[in-house]
């Protein structure tokens, strides 16, 4: 059974640009959550999608957005990149809607220069 | 407010020693879930265990064991006879019934097992 796939693995962008990250969950999983991991702030929840609807959103500015497609694949977009957006972005795949086990991808390492 | 505290930032042990990683949580919800994840250098978070708030039974899985105590709001993780492959960052996390799959993570404990 394939795991959670995140693409790309590494990305370098310039301040002011925008970026789109992709996540393909485990087959059959309908919930996808996104997290930002930085040395200073640790792991912080960005948002969760279930059946193409955003269910929860963390405390991040509107520059961070996401969506989920009918095949459960999800994308997150960050516009007007800032240096502080440099982080490891992790995607989690879950089967159900209530606190089931979440399986994570290897993440996308974003560097903003 | 929800909060997960892992007071131990870094721990070093010699191979074959036992080690316990501490986790203390705060929540107002009566139905909640606790998790432990392992993050090796590759970056992926590896699921280890999930417990719900109504199940205080301790659990053992091979060299791993977990002690859940609601009275002290703790969910500690013990590795018995540690091995070099156990070296990683370990995260404790909390989720609540009302917020679905939103996890609140602790700051992690970096474990180094010295051969």
Question: Nutshell version of this structure?
Answer:
Chain A is built from no helices and eleven strands. Chain A is an all-beta fold.
Structure overview:
The complex is a heterodimer of chains A (113) and B (115). With 113 residues, chain A is mainly beta. Chain A has strands at residues 5-7, 10-13, 19-24, 31-38, 42-50, 53-57, 64-68, 74-78, 87-94, 102-104, 108-112. In chain A, the strands form two sheets. In chain A, strands 2, 4, 5, 6, 9, 10 and 11 form a seven-stranded mixed beta sheet that branches. A four-stranded antiparallel beta sheet of chain A has the order 1-3-8-7, with no helix packed on it. In chain A, a hairpin with a 7-residue loop joins β9 and β10 (102-104). Chain B is mainly β. Chain B has no helices and twelve strands. Chain B has strands at residues 3-5, 10-14, 19-21, 24-26, 32-39, 46-52, 59-61, 64-69, 74-79, 88-96, 104-105, 109-114. The A-B interface holds A 31, 33, 35, 42-45, 48, 50, 55-56, 58, 88, 90, 92, 94, 97-107, 109 and B 32-33, 35, 37, 42-47, 50, 52, 91, 95-97, 99-108.
């Amino acid at each position: 059974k394939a795991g959670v796939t995140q693409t790309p693995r590494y990305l370098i962008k310039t301040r002011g640009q925008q970026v789109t990250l992709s996540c393909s969950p485990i087959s059959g999983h309908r919930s996808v959550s996104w997290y930002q991991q930085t040395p200073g702030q640790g792991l912080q929840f960005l948002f969760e999608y279930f059946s193409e609807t955003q269910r929860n959103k963390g405390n991040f500015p509107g520059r961070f957005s996401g969506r989920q497609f009918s095949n459960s694949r999800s994308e997150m977009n960050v516009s007007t990149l800032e240096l502080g957006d440099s982080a490891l972005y992790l995607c989690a795949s879950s089967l159900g809607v209530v606190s089931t086990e979440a399986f994570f991808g290897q993440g996308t390492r974003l560097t903003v220069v | 407010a929800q909060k997960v505290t892992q007071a131990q930032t870094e721990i070093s042990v010699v191979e074959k020693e036992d080690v316990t990683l501490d986790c203390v949580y705060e929540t107002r919800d009566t139905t909640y879930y606790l998790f432990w994840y392992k993050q090796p250098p590759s970056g992926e978070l590896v699921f280890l265990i999930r417990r719900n708030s109504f199940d205080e039974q301790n659990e053992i899985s091979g060299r791993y064991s977990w002690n859940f105590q609601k009275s002290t709001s703790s969910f500690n993780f013990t590795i018995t006879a540690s091995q070099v492959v156990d070296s990683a960052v370990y995260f404790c996390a909390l989720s609540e019934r009302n917020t679905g799959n939103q996890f609140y993570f602790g700051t992690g404990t970096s474990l180094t097992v010295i051969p």
